[in-house]
Amino acid sequence: MIVSRTTGTVLKALPSLQRLDVSFIRNLSCELKDVTGAKISEHAKKVKEFRGFYGSKVVGEVTVDMIYGGMRGIKALATETSYLDPEEGIRFRGYSIPECRDLLPKAPGGQEPLPEGLFWLLLTGEVPTENQVKNLSKEWAAHADLPAHVVTMLNNFPAHLHPMSQFAAAITACNTESAFAKAYSEGVHKSKYWEYTFDDAMSLIAKLPTIAATIYRNLYRDGSSIGAIDPNKDWSANFVDMLGFKDEKLTDFIRLFLTILSDHEGGNVCAHAVHLVGSGLSSPYLSFAAGMCGLAGPLHGLANQEVLVFITKMQQQLGDNPTEAQISDFCRKTLKSGQVIPGYGHAVLRKTDPRYTAQREFCLKHLPDYPMFKLVSEMYKVVPPILMETGKVKNPWPNVDAHSGVVLQYYGLREMNFYPVIIGVSRALGVMASLVWDRGLSLPIEYCKSMTSSVLMKMSGVS
Ligand code: CMX
Questions:
Q1: Among 21-35, 50-64, 194-208, 314-328, which is the least confidently predicted range?
Q2: Residue 346 Cα, ligand 1 centroid: separation in angstroms?
Q3: 20 to 30 A from 8, CA-CA: which of 210, 325, 387, 392?
Q4: What is the pLDDT of residue 29?
Q5: 388 lines ligand 1 (CB under 6 A)
Q6: Catalytic residues
Q7: pLDDT at position 26 over 90
Q8: Atom of ligand 1 nearest to the CA of 339
Q9: How far apart are CA 40 and CA 124, in angstroms?
Q10: What confidence score (pLDDT) does residue 1 get?
Q11: Ligand 1, residues 340, 351, 379, 404: which to mutate, most atoms within 8 A of Cβ?
């Protein structure tokens, strides 16, 4: 019997998830592995040739300011899955967010893309068929169960341990399942690293909604059971079921959310952390856990939670329909007190985040009169000019985090501390696809040069 330290109630162990006959799916899932393998070997040849001819070409310079300024603008990483244009926003393998919403397969009756399709796209550069996506959903459903020690650990965490800490810890503990770690310890040839990284990526992604839902139920639903995985439902639908919600519109929003937050090129905190830790050949589980510790920072993934705290505070003080002048005053006070306005600004983007726009479009269609959405819309008018006035904020426009919490609030998923976990589930798609490619291209251990200020001063001619 396991008793929750959080609530004192007796917790049910996870029901043993239905074990499927996956023999036929194994072959189909190999289709994704086969396609990925073919793409990797083709591209690896191209990159080798490119480096042979252009390896010494200079593509940028590094200034003292860049070194002290968080490496902003230094071109230092090769990431194949996505590219972030400062003026246009993210493109996944060349496809913009509107294009992905249009082209990627959808669930029957759904209007938003299935994140399974985006994962296929990120890995292979190709838009998958409906059948390929369906098989991927089945594959993930078949591997969604957790090792017993992970369930026991989650069930015993105290309520004041933030959901993101629980999430990262559970992923670390899942390392018992790593095919990569096992293969490495058995001396597998390095040309096969990417294959084991792929296998781990698939089973890790399959398990993340189960981990997330277990955390949610333990913290906010008295440790009630997450129920069983339905092998005929897609990844997002099973996730929403496990969380305990029954709204089709919420499920469709989660599909959109998990798709658009999946990847944002390689230099952001969590993506870079996964790449860095993976470069030392830590397993995909450990590499991803490192990324999730990075995502838990308030300037990164936790900003999503911070936005809700900010808006809620504003609503409590000013009511549901504050005037522009009141919002403006509230924001100015925030800046004066030395805090950031969460959900605004970006290290690379220089325009409204298309991920914000996609969510805004969803709201305009499904919840146009929701007071919190109206408040977010008002902030869109008021905040950019205020940030511009400071003269130092490089991007005064909203980022993805300015919006997502509002939709989740509307559909009753109100526990804002949990929001970064949902982003973490999504982010796995991008960073795991990238990690497969890192190993496929045999990228070496990362080790950049650091400097002391006195060496930098000497180099700059300061005597
Ligand atoms: N509110 C107040 N000040 C802001 C600001 C904001 N939203 N955005 C930037 N600034 C400030 C910075 O703090 C910095 O001030 P100092 O010079 O006094 O240190 C100055 O403007 C210049 O910063 P910048 O070059 O425009 O932005 P950075 O690349 O340094 O930082 C980011 C980017 C996202 C951390 C920053 O814009 C921020 O803190 N935004 C609010 C938090 C947020 O929404 N984070 C989520 C981003 C999405 C993600 O990557 O996950």
A1: 21-35
A2: 6
A3: 210
A4: 55
A5: no
A6: 300, 346, 401
A7: no
A8: 2
A9: 8
A10: 44
A11: 340
**CB-based contacts of 356, cutoff 8 Å, min separation 6:** 398, 399, 400, 402, 403
Provide the 3-class DSSP secondary structure of residue 60: coil
Separation of alpha carbons 169 and 164, rounded Å: 8
Polymer length of the chain: 463
Nearest atom (ligand 1) to Cα of 344: 7
Distance CA 56, CA 448 (A): 17
Whether 133 lines ligand 1, by a CB cut-off of 6 Å, is no
For residue 327, what are its two tokens? Answer: 């919002």
| 261 CB within 6 A, ligand 1 | no
73, 288, 424 from 296: Cα distances, Å? 23, 12, 9
Instruction: Starting at the earlier edge strand, list the strands of the sheet with 89-92.
Output: 82-85, 89-92, 95-96
Q: What's the CA-to-centroid distance between 340 and ligand 1, angstroms?
A: 7
Protein fold of 304-410: Cytochrome p450-Terp; domain 2 (1.10.230)
Going by CA atoms, what residue is nearest to atom 10 of ligand 1?
393
Ligand 1, atom 21, lies closest to the CA of 393
Query: What is the predicted pLDDT for the residue at 2?
Result: 46
Question: Which residues, 6+ apart, have CB-to-CB distance to 50 below 8 Å?
Answer: none
For residue 280, name the pLDDT band (cuts at 50, 70, 90). Answer: very high
Distance from residue 299's CA to the centre of ligand 1 (Å): 8
| Cα 140 to ligand 1 centroid, rounded to whole Å | 37
At residue 14, the pLDDT reads 44
Residue 21 above 70 pLDDT? Answer: no
pLDDT over 70 (residue 79): yes
Nearest residue (by CA) to ligand 1, atom 2, is 340
Q: Name the residue with the closest Cα to ligand 1, atom 11.
A: 393
Q: 31-73, pLDDT tens digit by residue?
A: 999 999 999 999 999 999 999 999 999 999 999 999 999 999 9
The answer to whether 20-48+64-300+423-440 and 304-410 have equal CATH topology is no
Amino acid at 270: C
Q: Is 399 in the pocket of ligand 1 (CB under 6 A)?
A: yes
423 lines ligand 1 (CB under 6 A): no
Bridge partners for 344 per DSSP: 398
What are the extents of the domains in the chain? 20-48+64-300+423-440, 304-410
Atom of ligand 1 nearest to the CA of 301: 51
Question: What's the pLDDT score for residue 30?
Answer: 83
pLDDT at 12 over 80: no
CATH superfamily for domain 20-48+64-300+423-440: Citrate Synthase, domain 1 (1.10.580.10)
Summarize pLDDT for 369-388 with one digit per residue, the tens. Answer: 999 999 999 999 999 999 99
> Which of 296, 287, 290 has its CA nearest to residue 165?
296
